[in-house]
Structure formats: structure tokens, C-alpha cells
Amino acid sequence: MNSKLDRMKELVKILNEASKAYYQQNTEIMSNKEYDLLYDELSELEKETGITLSNSPTVNVGYELISNLPKEYHQKPILSLDKTKDVYALKQWLGDQTGVLSWKLDGLTIVLTYENGGLDKAVTRGNGEVGEVVTNNVRVFKNIPLNIPFRGNLVLRGEAVISYSDFEKINSEIAVEQLKYKNPRNLCSGSVRQLNNEITAGRNVYFFAFSVVSAENADFGNSRLNQLKWLKNQGFDVVEHREVNSENIEHTIEWFGKKILDNDFPADGLVLIYDDISYGESLGTTAKFPRDSIAFKWKDEIKETRLLEIEWSASRTGLINPIAVFEPVELEGTTVKRASLHNISMMESLELGIGDIIGVYKANMIIPQVSENFTKSGTAEIPSECPACGEGTSIRQENGIKFLYCINRDCIAKQIKSFTHFVSRDAMGIDGLSEATIEKFISKGFIKEYADIYRIEKFKDEIIDMEGFGEKSFRNLVDSINKSRKTNTVRLLYGLGIPNVGLSNARLICGHFSYDWKRIENADFEQLILIPGIGEIMAGEYVKFFSSEKNRRIINDLLRELELEKAEVSNGEQTFEGITFVITGQVFNYKNRAELKKIIEEKGGKVTGSVTSNTDYLINNDILSNSTKNKKAKELGIKIIDEAMFIEWINRGIRP
């Protein structure tokens, strides 16, 4: 069963990646035939095992909006766990019993109920007695089995979690600092309790089962380990665990301790439970805790070090964050030399000063924090000037906590999004300059305008010394920047981020002015609105942008660093002007679909990635295919043509 389930998970991943490439990125990583073969294999395995995973392409869960989350009592109360940080105490607690040691995942506990093999209900932990019904949202978790082979009534518990990598990605897309999520657990809780499960689906929530509450007529041989194996065979991902006894428990705790450093799912400790189900149940409970299980928390490793400086980092919201920089110390197997101080209030409570002896640790063995200040000189100064723009700062109180802000509305740090857009793939295409890296460079004053990106080498020593950088990564970044110096007018115009001027409109404008930059930047309102697809609002924003003396200065400075390629101007007839195409499937007479797309655009046409009511023609060499795009085209009455028909139009100069 496990090998079949593993194959199903593999197929789901492969097919979903293929669909994403096909529908969202307008490219193909496999043929339609290969996709269909893998799809059929997955369908057969689902029938054979009785398991259907929530992210399987064979099912469409669908999105639904509800008005509230109803409440419901749990079949059995969910109690908290007693805790210890002492390995010896944990060993004594286990005694001569066999136990199951697993991660204590830091997310949201969910109780699932299955009836006749189908997911019937999902309820949050709530207060332990009453939780909220979130069935609608759980159905769109990344790895929930919607159907399982077991046909009796099943109630189980597990943890809903969001990975650190997804947490950081979601937070990076939130512009307002105060609206960012504090940790993956908060994000997970908010995601699971949404009234619109389309939001939940976009958050990549995973579920890991950790115990069975009841399973009608199922025999686990009185073993928790057998329960977990059984749950795995039903299609659930189970919490990572190890069998332990008094002989190996210390070594196993050490094993988990090393692994947490690379664990992408948040865990705030371990859980130890007796393997013998009957023995554990016979112990009963206290008023607060079950007696068959206990939580283990790692003791924080605190090291003393000397505070070297307080670095102030400006952000896109105007918030200026204090960061403690100290003499490097080894913590949990890694070298640490920086820790966020979060806000002015924390700085004041620690009474920090340069040269103070401070204690640092890693919260949950991951995030560096300052725990205490042993000397408390209190001499640290709060800057009156923003480190990014040099303008004034002010201290504001929010919910009783003091924060430092830049008061300059035009602060360069508040324009991080525009720099991120400028270096993006379809603009200047500079690899290695992520939004986080740009934010660091701006906060340190390395970048103040676009041209500064091309002069970054003068800060080589400072950048190499930055966390996450080194000689090799710096050199790779510089190589990527230098490679982007040779560019074209379309990339440049798009990269400037003029309101409403997307990539396709940038192509239209540049093509209209024969890719001549002087004509492009000096275009007036009347000239622009004559271009098909360019409306009055867009033309107004365009002229306003290039009328700004500041923008002109920035562009002229940038042009000194670039080499604009001489674009080939097509003198051919615009036979496809105003016609929208979608291309799908394999092409045989062109190098790839990108080449075919280029030809269409050169003749005035437009190519989009999906079939809509605005599509005029779908190009597919397999006209009889049952692909999604073919079906959609037939539903909308859109004509499907093959390459041969398209080439005939080209050769004969036919406007379809």
C-alpha cells in the first residue's frame, strides 16, 4: 500500500507541475499523451486503493464562501500536555515502557471525521471542548485525503501547519509591516478559519495526523505505532516519529534536536506518548493534562557576547527596525552575529548601549533573539535621520509600543516594489536581486536610484560581509547585473513601472515608435492614443511620468549604464492587428511556441495564455484533442486552427 501511495503522491506532484506550466506559464514540460497516461495511472491507483488526495487533478474541490463558522462539541475533550525541559525527567517518565516520540508541530490542531470512506467533518481544537467547523477549508489543504479505503466511522486528530518557506513568501507580499504575520502558527490559524476557502487554498496548508480518537472495529494491536502505520496506509501524512525506550531516548532527542535546524515545518518541541494504548488510557487524566503523554521543550542555549552596534533598517512602510550586531557566537550549531530588536520599546527595556554584555539565544532553536543585558549602560541613541534617505524620523506609539518611522513620503525605502519590478525577469532580468536583498541594499544606502544597481561593485567589501552573501554569490550577482546592461527599449520601458504600462503595452508603444528611445520618451498624448490598445488614462499616466524632471534625471543617469540594442523594425503588413490568439500543444514548423508568438506580435496580433471570450483563434495541431483549452474553445465557439492553416495565412498575406 505504501509504495502505491508514494506513487500516487509522485503522480499528483508531476501532473500539477505540468498543469501549472501549461496554464500559468504558457509552456509545456510534457506532451498531452504523456500527461494523459500519467493521469490514467493515477485514476487507476485511486480506484485500487480507495484513496483520493485533496490536490489530485482528478478531483475539483471547488471554492465556497460561507457566512460564519459553526461551533461543535468534540467527541472527547482535547487537553493540553504537561511539559518538561529535562531529558532525565522525560526518561524517568517513560520508565520501562516503549514510547512514540514525535515532533510537537506548532500549528492548529484539527479533528477529522470520516464516514463511509469520505471526509465528513473537520473541527478546530477551539477551547478543547468546543471547536469551529472548518470542513470547507480542510478540503483544500495540500495533502488531505478526501476519500480513504476504510469504510467505518473514523475520528482522528492532527496538526494543520504552514511551512517556514511558504510563511516567508506570503509575508514578503504584504506591504504594511504591521499587517505581516508574526509566525507560521498565526498565519495557519488565520488561513484555516477563513470564510472563503479560496484564500485557504492559496496558503499551502498541510495536515499531519498524530492520533486516532476512534475507528469503528479497527484493530491496532494495542499499539500507537500501529495506529500511525494504519493512518499512513489510509493516505494520511503522519507526524514524523521514532520508537523509543529508556536505552535510546536521549540519543533520539539529540537526533530530533539536530534535525530541527533544517525542518521546514515549525515545531516547538517534542511529544512523548506510551505505545501501549490500554496502559496509557488506564492512567486517566488530571484536571488539565492526559497522563499518557507529555511534551518536551528544549532548554534555550544562551551565550554571552558583546554588542558592537545597533543597525537601523528602513522598510517599505517607513518603519525603521533596530538590529543588534554583536561579536559572533555559536548557537545550536550555527554562527550568529545579528538579532532583531523589534522596536524602540524593547530597546528601552533592555537598556542597551554599545559595548554592553548581552545574552543571545535562538527561539525554538531557529530565530536569534536578545534575552537580556548584563551591563545595562542605556547609552544607545535613536537616530534622528533615516538611514535610507537622510530625512527626519519620528517615534510613534501603537498599542503602547514605540516604533521609529521615516517621515519622508518619498523615502527610497518606500519604493522597494518599484526596484523589484525593475529587476524582474521581463524587465531588466537581473538574477540574485530578490526583494529582501534589495531592501537590505537600500536600507544600507547602497542603492538610491536604478543606476546605482550597476555601480554596486564599489560596496563589494560590505556586501561580502553581509549575512547570506560571500565572494561567490557577490560575483554571481555582479555578472547578472553586467549581463543585463545590454537590453532593449521594451524591457527598459516596462521596467520603469509606469502605471498601466504592462509588457504587451510596452511592446505596442515601442513598436509604434520603431524602438527609438528618444521618440518613445518624448511621445505626446495625441500620438499615444492613436496606438490600438492605448487608452486615454494610460496615455495620461505615460505623459505625466516622462514630464517629471526627477524621472528624466533618473532615466538619463540609467541610460549611461546601459546599451540599448538596435531592434529590428518590421516593415511587414500588420495582418493580425486586433486579433487575439492562444497557442497550445506542440509546434512543428517553429523552434518553439515563443517563436510563433513573436511572429504573431510582429504582424500586430496578440497572444494570451488562456482561452476566453476575447480569444479569436486557438492554434493547436491536434484539433480533435480533448485538452482543456480545446474544450473551452468549443464551448465558446472559438475557431481552432492548426499550424498549416496559420502558415497559409502568413504566406498568402490573408487577414483572417
What would you note in describing this structure?
This protein is of the alpha+beta class. It folds into 6 domains: 2-49, Helix Hairpins, CATH 1.10.287; 71-296, D-amino Acid Aminotransferase, Chain A, domain 1 (2-Layer Sandwich), CATH 3.30.470; 303-406, Beta Barrel (OB fold (Dihydrolipoamide Acetyltransferase, E2P)), CATH 2.40.50.140; 412-484, DNA polymerase, domain 1, CATH 1.10.150.20; 487-564, 5' to 3' exonuclease, C-terminal subdomain (DNA polymerase, domain 1, Orthogonal Bundle), CATH 1.10.150.20; 580-652, BRCT domain (Rossmann fold, 3-Layer(aba) Sandwich), CATH 3.40.50. The strands form 7 sheets. Strands 14, 15, 16, 17, 18, 19 and 20 form a 7-stranded antiparallel β-sheet that branches. It has a 5-stranded mixed β-sheet with strand order 3-13-12-4-11. A 4-stranded antiparallel β-sheet has the order 6-5-9-10. Helix 23 links the parallel strand 25 (617-619) and strand 26. Helix 1 (2-23) runs antiparallel to helix 2 (32-49), helix 12 crosses helix 13 (435-443) and helix 16 packs across helix 17. The protein is flat, with a radius of gyration of 30 Å. The mean pLDDT is 85.
